[in-house]
Amino acid sequence: MRAERCGIGNAATITVFAIAIAGCDLDNPGVPLPAATLNFPIALAVVDGAPETNDDDYLLVVSSNFDVRYASGSVQSWRLAELQTAIDDAVAGVDDLGVDCGEDGRPACEIQIEERPEVFLQDEVRIPSHADGIAVGPSEDRIYLPVRSGRGGLTWIDLADGLFGCGEGDACDDLHNTVAVAPVSRELSLPTDPVALAVVPRDLVGGGDADAIVIAHRNGSGSLLLDDLRGQPTLFDVIDGLPTDVVSAEMDPESGAVWLTSAPPSSRPTRDLVAVAPIVSDVDTRLAVVNRITLAGLDDGGTGSDTRDIAFDVGVDRAWVLARRPEAVITVDFRVPPVAPNLAPLGEIFAVASGPSRLERVVVPFDPDGDEGPIPARERTYLLASCYDANNVSVIDPELGLIATVAGLAGPFEMAYDATRELLFVINFRNNTIGVVDLSPLRTGASPRLIAYLGDPDAPSPFSG
């Protein structure tokens, strides 16, 4: 198998995978990717097609082809209304779609979406292998994928009604796998090996007519592209000096700054968080480092911090950082003056389970006595940390700490929240499925629960043989 030639074998973590394939040819020209197949899904996004009806909402799933088993990766658009119907029927004991509930001892129903694409799948398109994420544009008319193989490092796809537009065939064409280059005073080219990206809406980019795309690359460089949605995104700037071990890039929705988390090895310890921002004017278009803070005073064993993700408290000058050294969610409270320049003003620290990987901030209405009770409902913020090694999701209330754990997952990684249905979708990297967690119990102070797997958790994978 191609994965064995690349030294992947039975690697236990995504980090080991990344190291193993670093020197491999990520393009396998051989076996075509079968339709409607989840092959190492790596990223998720929920898009709202018609908020007034909820009929045209979609779950976007990026499969990375991480083991290079096939000739490409893919992006799929799954119909959320149909998924919800199947989940509701399965939980109620109705089985019209070949749903397996509890027969193999698993804690949730298995919904074989790959076997019923005519019901669940809206669209699918092939992309180069080893995509590393997804970002949905502010208008939800375009999506962006950092891709480590192929020609350009960035794949961009137009999106309408859950349908993908990136060429005439079933794969994105060269135009959509490359970018334009602005006529600036120095020669520019988009660096290879993108690892994370974020899209900054145009109203936070000097009020111009283009959104900004910020990409972090494995070599410690960062790229700035502008996109007015009338053609290819255009590269305007490339800078060096960023962390070389970036894990995530997340935008502060109020300032437009993009914060980078990183996981350096213990031989190169650091405790820094870096923020970059697009600077766009009539005379200057560039990417600038606008903040660099140090997470000092943490019990990280003296080896430096290992930060995996960051989420922002909207309306409050506060953020939460997910770390593996220590394994915790760390509050950074910018309302508090730092004790020294560039030191992060730390607040509460909440321990989480082992192998924390991604952090999702969600808002759920809290109504402990129900609609008829005297206590009015209010929105409450929760932090959800996927914990890869522990195979669960830690649920944190920033006011109370760790309040629940959702077990039964298999290498949980990226997450996406469907606020309309109060469902959390979680990639199970170890078995090529997507876990579905019902967050609605949080309304009354109860614990969320895993209710379904999308896909076949018993399908063969490098982890199972």
Explain this structure to me?
This protein is mostly beta strands and 465 residues long. The chain has a domain at 187-351: YVTN repeat-like/Quinoprotein amine dehydrogenase (Methylamine Dehydrogenase, Chain H), CATH 2.130.10. Helix content is 6%, strand content 42%. It has 4 helices and 31 strands. The strands form 7 sheets. The protein has a 6-stranded mixed beta sheet with strand order 4-5-31-30-29-28, with helices on one face. A 5-stranded mixed beta sheet has the order 11-15-14-13-12, with no helix packed on it. Strand 28 and strand 29 (423-428) form a beta hairpin. The two termini are 12 Å apart. This is Lipoprotein. InterPro entries: Haem_d1_sf (IPR011048), WD40/YVTN_repeat-like_dom_sf (IPR015943).
Summed up:
This is Lipoprotein. By secondary structure, the chain is mostly beta strands. The chain is built from 4 helices and 31 strands.
Poorly predicted regions: 1-13, 15-23
Helical proportion, percent range: under 10%
Alpha-beta classification = mainly beta
Strand proportion, as a percent range, falls in 35-45%
Q: Which architecture of one domain would the CATH scheme give at its second level? A: 7 Propeller
Overall pLDDT level: 87
Strand tally, please? 31
Name a few traits of the molecule.
single chain; 465 residues; mainly beta; Methylamine Dehydrogenase, Chain H; 6-stranded mixed beta sheet; 5-stranded mixed beta sheet; 6% helix; globular; disordered N terminus
What is the strand and helix layout of this fold?
Blueprint: H1 2-5, H2 14-20, E1 41-47, E2 58-63, E3 73-79, H3 80-92, E4 100-101, E5 109-111, H4 117-120, E6 121-127, E7 135-136, E8 142-146, E9 154-160, E10 163-165, E11 180-181, E12 194-200, E13 211-217, E14 222-227, E15 234-239, E16 246-251, E17 258-262, E18 272-280, E19 285-294, E20 306-313, E21 318-325, E22 327-333, E23 346-351, E24 356-366, E25 378-387, E26 392-397, E27 401-406, E28 412-418, E29 423-428, E30 433-438, E31 449-454
Protein name: Lipoprotein
InterPro entries: Haem_d1_sf, WD40/YVTN_repeat-like_dom_sf
